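Help! Submission page says 'invalid entity' but I think these are all valid:
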Amino acid sequence: MQKYGGTSVGNIERIRAVARRCLATQRQGHDVVVIVSAMSGETNRLLALAKQLSELPSERELDVIVSTGEQVSVGLVALAIHAEGGEAVSLLGHQVRILTDSAFSRARIKEIDARAIGSALKDGKIAVIAGFQGVDESGNITTLGRGGSDTSGVAIAAALKADVCEIYTDVDGVYTADPNVVPNARKVSRISYEEMLELASLGAKVLQIRSVEFGMKFGVPIHVRSSFNDNEGTWVVPEEKAMESVMVSGVTATRDESKITLHGISDQAGIQAMVFRPLAAAGIVVDVIVQAYVQNGRTNLTFTLPAADLARARDLLIKQCGHLCTPDQIKAETNLSKVSVVGVGMRSHAGVALKMFEILARENIGVQLISTSEIKISCVIDEKYAELAVRALHDGFDLDKG
Amino acid sequence: MQKYGGTSVGNIERIRAVARRCLATQRQGHDVVVIVSAMSGETNRLLALAKQLSELPSERELDVIVSTGEQVSVGLVALAIHAEGGEAVSLLGHQVRILTDSAFSRARIKEIDARAIGSALKDGKIAVIAGFQGVDESGNITTLGRGGSDTSGVAIAAALKADVCEIYTDVDGVYTADPNVVPNARKVSRISYEEMLELASLGAKVLQIRSVEFGMKFGVPIHVRSSFNDNEGTWVVPEEKAMESVMVSGVTATRDESKITLHGISDQAGIQAMVFRPLAAAGIVVDVIVQAYVQNGRTNLTFTLPAADLARARDLLIKQCGHLCTPDQIKAETNLSKVSVVGVGMRSHAGVALKMFEILARENIGVQLISTSEIKISCVIDEKYAELAVRALHDGFDLDKG
């Protein structure tokens, strides 16, 4: 099972390279199933066409249009394999039958029929499968959301009980931090699904988060590696097999965060629902939520959200929460960053949070909000300190030493 | 039922115009089904991508790739209809279920399921259907060959028992001759299927020939008209309804014809099969065949073929018909044109052939070969006289007078 992203099939030369790699794998005695994305730039070209017609295009029709990107790719990859002397057959979402729900543009896979793929493999062919796309019960074409080809790859690997799902991309693997920020960031050779999930949700763009969920749920080992060389990449595997049980596996930072604080509002029952219902209805995703300083029945409620949604969220609160607070009580702040350290080792090591606060304090970086999970600690800080914080944490937790 | 060609959906502005026309038709109280081609240039762009990988690409994969052109078009037309305030749903070949045989790149329609279209219409929606594509019994994507969207349109109109199949194109209708050659050529308001079939097979490129066959077989009136204005075009209808029962309906000329004559070969039984079997096996289409001058058991066999196939055909005959004739006996000639007059009126009017020969003789145009059908007379002449012949015949048969 190999999955290739858009840059890996970005032009005819690269498509030929993909074909050669598939055939090399086949010659080693493996059955080869390859999942491909649209050629890089193609999805955006198609979206731009649609946007010329409508600001809010029908998601059903948008899926019909953008799914053609992968359709062209699978045809070309199959032709390239033929040209290199191999046998291959392309399969679209509705031909494999990758059954999804009907949530166009963000569909979830319900079931994958492995028979069409199996019969291609039995004939000695390489099965070339369109990523990102599926079909619902009524035969409508659906897509899985941006980066959905990763999810297709892992889900198909699970359905086929494949030995491994190799995700070929334009980076060498998963790093302890963004190498552009931290020059001595180190490639991680093994990482657990849980850690990868936290890293993915914290902005590391190597793997789509749902693909990691699938891998974890069905126990598919995922190997993230570069399509431009033969180096080993990063294996994403069950926790017991993740050998590097260090305290912290990686450091990430998100950007363009903002926060809203409702000051001194009445601490009545159900107040949180009153605040967050209008935001959810408007599709605004709220991240860290902190409630504090209860005094005389009054409380401060603070939450973070993407900066792009800030103005809209503020307007909604002013309009719909007038009974809770005046506009003056709603304070908005932007240019924030969420810096996080992730590691399954935290479960057994006390003091990771303390160490994180000490490192940030040493650099005089003020922490505005804190959020923790079992294997992650996040601090919301002023965005201008984000890179400094990542470097200091990477050094402080000795991540360059492995 | 409206079908739009590639130039009619060639850019976003034209797609909007298509949407407005569909909605105008719907407001007149009609159920509207629209068949669309790929945006002009798109099919060639996709073919060029494939050709970079392989000189002789797999036709199955080619169909997967090129069918995306229509897929993008239907999505965009549906979005355009939404943007104009209408309701529409796109349907691909496998979603309608346009069942074809498995002859990739030139598939023939076997059956059309009208249910998905019917249910869209029942919901008050405009059904926007991808032309040119279908699906075989195994779920493989097929295409119907160049111009196949016309065939899709007429076949779907037949399946739905539509009142009319309107074919929107970049010309105003069917003319008595090519207006570029004959300035006073006249638009024909009604023409019979039989005449249209002859015209289509003689090089008039307004309609794909198989679409006319479908129209005839199922009695679907076809209205060929321009997508750039509201003028009435040409109605292609059963013969009894074709009001203009003139002797001749149109004049056409094909170009780039060539001919081969086998001189003085033995007139033994089965000789024609011996000559044409190797050509058919090589996919060379032979057109007019004339056999003459039988003397002492010797005969001359002459036939025409596209100039592009001439050299290959000559080589094949030399190699495989050595027992029939020497290379010296095989004469090839090129730069020929086949000029034809077509009209159902010929059936009841004697002397059309004579009149044609007289008109050509008056212009000193030598006729090399003659071929006739019930409603058509063709003369093979020197190509340099083709335009002169068309003009002379158009005038001689008073086609400008209607």
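Support: the input was valid. A stray whitespace character was the problem, and the output above is from the cleaned input. The mean pLDDT of chain A is 91.
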